[in-house]
Amino acid sequence: MDQRIADLVGLLDLEPLEVYLFRGESRDIGTPQVFGGQVLGQALTAASRTVIGRTVHSLHAYFLRRGDFNAPIVYQVDRSRDGQSFSNRRIVAIQHGEQIFNMTASFQVEQPGLEHQLRMPDVPPPEELSDSFRVDEDLLTRLPERVRLLLSTQRPFEFRAVTRRAQLQQSGQPPARQVWFRTAAPVPDDEALHRCLLAYVSDFHLLETATLPHGIAHLSGKAVVASIDHAMWFHRPLRVDDWLLYDVVSPSASGSRGFAHAKVFDRSGRLVASTAQEGLVRVT
Q1: What are the two backbone dihedrals, phi and then psi, of residue 7, each rounded to the nearest 5 degrees?
Q2: What does each C-alpha distance from 281 to 254, 257, 260, 284 come to in angstroms?
Q3: Angle, nearest 10°, between helix axes 191-201 and 3-12?
Q4: Which of 54, 81, 195, 220, by CA, is between 20 and 30 Å from 152?
Q5: pTM higher than 0.85 for the full model?
Q6: Is 233 helix (H, G, I), strand (E, B) or coil?
Q7: Is-catalytic flag, 203?
Q8: Run of H or E residues at 5
């Protein structure tokens, strides 16, 4: 397995401490606190370890405190209900003796039913687009150290935006964007793992979209952005090691909060997941 993917899968591979109690390591990727996607992915992994024969179809989470990437996180899972078709789990993430995050996840036995979906937007394929994280070397040297770490660290995911954002200066743009993404190498055939990895990567790009109409370039350091809550719905089987399109829209920003929701399509146009997030957005 590619080392970048092995490291990411290892990050989600929690240590069992007791029945319904797990511990996960933290990783510094250059963000001011533990990356929210890490906590989402680990919490979903913890919940999935307590469910047999059912796949997650939705999750609803709240970020309560900034996570410390220098310390592990303990995940406590409450087995709320196991019905004939659905199982519900509540997960609490604890660090330094305090709750930093909680989440409810629902799992379902695979069942047939009605089928319909919205169409995928007509956008260029990823092969025609460039790496969204590529930054000119002269610009990289002028950025703060933590931003340089975020941009220069080898990433387990590739991102290719349909419309690239300005890095330091930007005028107002419509609050919408489309970004292709996939893991940098193949991932084992495990649907639960692919959904946990999608939860991890879904924390990218959502709140950024809420800043687009306000002319705030994403590397300018002029805004404080942090997740408050995050929700996901998994509609169909998916693979994160093949290109997926993140179609993101921010309908509103108000009260120092930005809101965004997104649809996730695979290469064939199947709608595989949806997400929504509200977060703190303060201009400094």
Answers
A1: -65, -40
A2: 9, 5, 12, 10
A3: 90
A4: 195
A5: yes
A6: strand
A7: yes
A8: helix 3-12
H or E stretch covering 148: helix 145-152
250: helix, coil or strand? strand
Q: Are 241 and 197 in contact (CB under 8 A)?
A: no
Cα–Cα distance measured from residue 189 to residue 164, given in angstroms and rounded to the nearest whole number: 32
For this structure, is 227 an active site residue? Answer: yes
Nearest CA to 190 out of 34, 45, 32 is that of 45
CA neighbours within 13 Å on the CB side: how many for 216? 19
Structure letter (DSSP) for residue 164: P
Take residue 77 and report the two structure tokens written for it: 């899972």
Beta strands (DSSP E) in 174-238 are 176-183, 223-234
- In degrees and rounded to multiples of 5, residue 164 shows phi and psi of -80, 145
Q: Please pick, among 203, 241, 247, 266, the residue that the annotation labels catalytic.
A: 203
| Residue 192 in this model has a pLDDT that exceeds 60 | yes
Query: Considering only CA atoms, which of 264, 195, 231, 233 is closest in space to residue 51?
Result: 195
277 is an active site residue: yes
Task: Express each pLDDT in 234-251 by its tens digit.
Answer: 999 999 999 999 999 999
Q: Do the bridges between strand 98-108 and strand 157-161 make them parallel or antiparallel, or are there none, so unpaired?
A: unpaired
Q: How many CA atoms lie within 13 A of 85 on its CB side?
A: 4
Task: Single out the catalytic residue among 95, 227, 250, 274.
Answer: 227
Total residue count of the chain as it appears in this document: 284
- 3-109+132-283 placed in CATH 2.40.240.10: no
Q: How far apart are CA 101 and CA 66, in angstroms?
A: 9
R_g of the chain computed on alpha carbons: 18
Hey, where are the domains in the chain? 3-109+132-283
